[in-house]
Amino acid sequence: MVRVPFVALHLQHRAVRAQLLAAVDRVFEHGQYVLGPEVEEFESRFASLCGVPFAVGMSDGTHALLLALRALGIGAGDEVITAPNSFLASAASIALAGARPVFADVRDDLNLDPEQVAAAVSPSTRAIMPVHLTGRPADMKRIGAIAERHGLHVVEDAAQAVGATLDGQAVGSFGAAGCFSLHPLKNLAACGDAGVVTTSDRKLADALRVERNHGLRGRDDCGAWGYNARLDTLQAALLNEKLPYLGRWTAAKRQIAARYRDALGDAVAVPEDGPGEHAVYQTFVIRADRRDDLQRHLAARGVDSKVHYPTPLHLQEAAAELGYKRGDFPVTERLATEILSLPIYPELTEAQQDAVVDGVLSFYGRRARR
Ligand SMILES: *Cc1c(COP(=O)(O)O)cnc(C)c1O
Q1: For residues 268 and 360, is the Cβ–Cβ distance under 8 A?
Q2: How sure is the predictor about 366, in pLDDT bands with cuts at 50, 70 and 90?
Q3: In this predicted structure, what is the pLDDT of residue 370?
Q4: CATH number of the domain that residue 156 is part of
Q5: Residues 115 and 258 placed together within one structural domain of the fold
Q6: Same domain? 235 vs 107
Q7: Residues 235 and 302 in one domain
Q8: Same domain, 358 and 209
Q9: What percent of the chain clears pLDDT 70, i.e. is strictly above it?
C-alpha cells in the first residue's frame, strides 16, 4: 500500500538544507537574534513579492491580524465583518482587538459572499476582513467596492495565500493591510511561528513596527503599551533562503491540483481557478457526498485527509456571547459537512497522487481514466 501522509514537512528542506544551515550559522556569527538584518531583508523581499512598498515581520499570523486591526484604530464598539468558515484566528484577532466579529456567509468557493457582506454592514462596522481561504483569492473587486461605499477598511486575512494573485495583483495588496502567516503548515513556511503584514501606507507600517516592539518609539520611549510580536531573526534568515523557491513549489502544487481536478471532477465538486484567479492551494478542498465515509475509506487505504474546518466559527463556544445560532449561515454549515482536504505538497510522488485519486474514485465506484 502506498502511504499518503497529509503533510511531510521533513521532505521540503532536503533540497535546501545546506543553505538553511549556512543561514543559521551566519546568524550565530553576528548574534543579533532580535530584529537582526535578516528581518529587514525579508521584509523588503516580501514587500516586493506582494507589489507593495512595506512589509512588517511579525511573530505569527494571529498577531499580524491583531496588530493590523489595532494600528487602524479598531477596538471597543467597532464591528469587523469576516467569514465564519475560517481558522479561529480570523475571529479571535477581531475579538482580541476589543471589537466584535460579525460573520457573513460564504459562497461554494469557500470565500465571502459580497452580497452577504453588504447585508452585514451596520453603523458600527469599521472594516471587512476577507479570508483568502485555501489560497484562493476572495472577490476583492466587489468587497473593495462595498468598503469604499461605506468608508470601511479592508484587512486581508491572507494567511493561507502567500503568492496568490487576482487579475495579476497579489493578495495582501488590495486592502489597507495584508496579514500573512508563515507557520510551518502554510505555503511559505518558517521553522516555527512567523508572520508578516503588508501595506502601502507608510504611517501604518511605522505604527506596526512600534506596536510589535513594546510600543517603543526609540530606545526607551513608549507612547502607548505595545506587544512583543516581532519576527525572529532566525526565522527571517530561513525564510530568505526559502523565498526564491516559492514559485517553484507553488507551480508544483498547482500541477497536482490540476491533476486532481481532471481526475476527480466527475465524482466530487473540485475547486476551480475562477477568471483572473491564481490560487496557491494551501489546501485542496473537495466537496463530497457522504464525506465522513469517504474519509474513513481513504484512511483504510493509507490516504490521510483533513477537514478545514469542522466547526464554523459562529458555533464555537468562544463565540457564544456573539449570540449566533445554528442556521444563521446555511452555506457555511452545509459546507462543513461536505468539505475534505486532500494531501497536496510539492514532494507528493506520482504513485501517491494516484493513490489519492484511486482512493476517492473507488469510494464512488468509479475507476481512474489512464
Ligand atoms: C493560519 C491562519 C491564521 C493564523 O496564523 P498563525 O501564524 O497560526 O497565527 C489566521 N487565519 C487563517 C485563515 C489561517 O489559516
Answers
A1: yes
A2: confident
A3: 63
A4: 3.40.640.10
A5: no
A6: yes
A7: no
A8: no
A9: 99
The reply to whether 370 falls in a domain is: no
Residue located nearest, by CA, to atom 5 of ligand 1: 61
Give residues (CB < 6 A) around ligand 1. 60-62, 86-87, 89-90, 131, 157, 159-160, 181, 183, 193, 195
In which band, very low, low, confident or very high, does the pLDDT at 367 lie, cut at 50, 70 and 90? confident
Q: Check which CATH number belongs to the domain holding 329 and give it.
A: 3.90.1150.10
Q: How far is the CA of 158 from the centre of ligand 1 (A)?
A: 8
DSSP 248: H
Residue 368: is its pLDDT beyond 80? no
Number of domains, the chain: 2
160, 182, 281: which to mutate for ligand 1, most atoms within 8 A of CB? 160
Residue in the structure block whose three cell numbers are 505604527: 207
Ligand 1 mean position to 160 CA, how many Å? 7
Q: Which residue has the higher pLDDT, 368 or 67?
A: 67
Q: Which domain holds residue 140?
A: 9-244
Domain boundary among the residues 244, 269, 292 is at: 244
88-133 pLDDT tens trace: 999 999 999 999 999 999 999 999 999 999 999 999 999 999 999 9
Among 194, 225, 244, the domain boundary falls at: 244
User: Comparing C-alpha atoms, which of 62, 184, 132, 110 is closest to residue 340?
Assistant: 110
Q: What is the rounded distance in angstroms from the CA atom of residue 147 to the CA atom of residue 149?
A: 6
> Does residue 3 belong to any structural domain of this protein?
no
Which ligand 1 atom sits nearest the alpha carbon of residue 90? 11
> Which residue puts its alpha carbon closest to atom 10 of ligand 1?
89
Across the range 150-158, mean pLDDT stands at: 98
Pairing status of strand 339-342 against strand 284-287: antiparallel
Closest CA to 190 of 239, 135, 241: 239
Atom of ligand 1 nearest to the CA of 63: 9
CA angle 178, 23, 61 (to 5 degrees): 20
Residues 352 and 296 in one domain: yes
Q: Which residue is it, cell 468587497?
A: 143
